[in-house]
Design a protein that fits this description.
Layout (H helix, E strand, L loop, with lengths): L9 E4 L3 H9 L4 E4 L13 H15 L7 E11 L2 E3 L5 H11 L3 E12 L2 E13 L4 H9 L20 E5 L2 H5 L3 H12 L11 H7 L15
Helix pairs in contact: 3-4, 6-7
Bound molecules: thymidine-5'-triphosphate.
């Protein structure tokens, strides 16, 4: 990661405590602005197109001063072309978990980085395999309330960790912000102020290899 990235004037367009925590983990200076947009899917919209569109709408919805760079993201769970967003209640959460049980799905995060008139939008996809869940396991987990603000009704970083047999791809992408690609995008955005000497650090090295398995990230207190 470039040592100059900490100098970036950054606005995180998100109310997600996970995204805030992950950006902090990078040591970046940023302020938070919470976008208010309609997150409903358009008719016929696929999961990736949906995540990309919402990420761009979130970024555009917040005001940023002169040189600031705005970062926004949207995470969806995709199964057989369907979008599983945040559940509307306990029944829908349980239905989503029954659907994911014993199967592999994809978690797609759309990312938008706005730097003046320049806009980068991209998506990152991670495959997640769930073990077969019992009805009791699902009921217990839904009762914790944790699924309610999370795409696909689960948090890999929290109580759903033991439900996940395997992941292929970025772990931070599942939690809502693919840090490797976000850092690359922010470095790219910073170049508009003139190229800086980049130092290839942890993230560059980390991105070079296959990322498999999960890290040790705490869940937030929001249920
Ligand atoms: C699959 C999965 C999703 N999530 C979260 C990430 C996202 O915060 C959330 C999906 O909802 P989003 O609409 O992407 O984000 P948000 O509403 O939390 O925040 P904002 O729109 O203000 O940026 O689901 C987890 O925390 N863990 C997981 O394992």
């Amino acid at each position: 990661m470039s040592e100059h990235l900490a100098e970036l004037e950054l606005v995180l367009a998100s109310g997600s405590p996970r995204r805030r925590r992950m950006l902090k983990q990078l040591g970046l200076n940023f302020r938070v602005a919470v976008p208010a947009i309609d997150e409903a899917a358009l008719a016929g919209e696929g999961p990736e197109a949906h995540a990309l569109r919402l990420a761009a709408e979130k970024a555009r919805a917040v005001a940023a001063p002169g040189n600031a760079v705005v970062l926004a993201a949207d995470t969806v769970v995709a199964h057989r072309g369907d979008i599983l967003g945040k559940p509307s209640g306990g029944r829908e959460a349980a239905a989503m978990l029954r659907r994911l049980s014993g199967r592999t799905h994809r978690v797609i995060t759309g990312v938008c980085i706005l730097a003046g008139a320049r806009e980068q939008t991209f998506s990152v996809s991670t495959e997640v395999e769930f073990k077969t869940l019992t009805a009791a396991e699902i009921e217990r987990y839904v009762r914790t309330g944790e699924p309610m603000d999370k795409a696909g009704a689960y948090g890999i970083q929290g109580g759903a960790a033991p439900m996940v047999r395997a992941i292929r791809g970025s772990y931070t992408n599942v939690v809502g912000l693919p840090l490797c690609e976000v850092v690359e995008g922010l470095e790219e955005a910073q170049k508009r102020d003139g190229p800086r000497k980049g130092t290839k650090g942890f993230f560059a090295d980390f991105c070079g290899g296959a990322v498999r398995g999960r890290g040790g990230m705490e869940d937030d207190k929001r249920s």
